[in-house]
Amino acid sequence: MCLAVPGKIISIENNNAQVDFSGVKRAVSLDLVPGAGKNDFVLVHAGFAIQVLDPAEAEETLKLFREIYGREHGDAGSGPLSHKKP
């Protein structure tokens, strides 16, 4: 099974981006989505952005991830998918 996670591009240098995944920042290649820009949400798999997402769709997906994480860990308001500070 493969999992792709939405994140928000916070900066771009050459064809690489710093992407924010609910507070966790990672380097991501933009080779597959050359039209992606700063503040866009992208779907990321294995270090590559594979699709630019509609912001509302990205937020809904992140909300679902937070709910799932909360059920598994007993608190949807904390953890790596939360927008809240622990």
Which descriptors would you attach to this protein?
86 residues, 1 helix, 5-stranded antiparallel sheet, SH3 type barrels, alpha+beta
Can you lay out the helices and strands and say which pair or pack?
Blueprint: E1 5-13, E2 16-21, E3 24-29, E4 41-45, E5 48-53, H1 55-73
Antiparallel strand pairs: 1-2, 1-4, 2-3, 4-5
Please explain how this structure is put together.
The longest helix is centred in the last third of the chain and has 19 residues, at 55-73. A hairpin with a 2-residue loop joins strand 4 (41-45) and strand 5. It is elongated, with a radius of gyration of 13 Å. It is 22% helix and 37% strand. A five-stranded antiparallel beta sheet has the order 3-2-1-4-5, covered by helices on one side. It has one domain (5-73): Roll (SH3 type barrels). It is of the alpha+beta class and 86 residues long.
Tell me the helix content. Answer: 10-25%
Quickly give the CATH architecture: Roll
Mean pLDDT: 86
- Total of helices: 1
Q: H/E order of the elements?
A: EEEEEH
Number of domains: 1
CATH class category: Mainly Beta
Main sheet strand line-up? 3-2-1-4-5
Largest sheet: 5 strands, antiparallel
Low-confidence stretches: none
End-to-end C-alpha gap: 30 Å
Radius of gyration: 13 Å
Overall strand count: 5
| Residue fraction in strands | 35-45%
* CATH fold naming: SH3 type barrels
Shape annotation: elongated
Structural class: alpha+beta
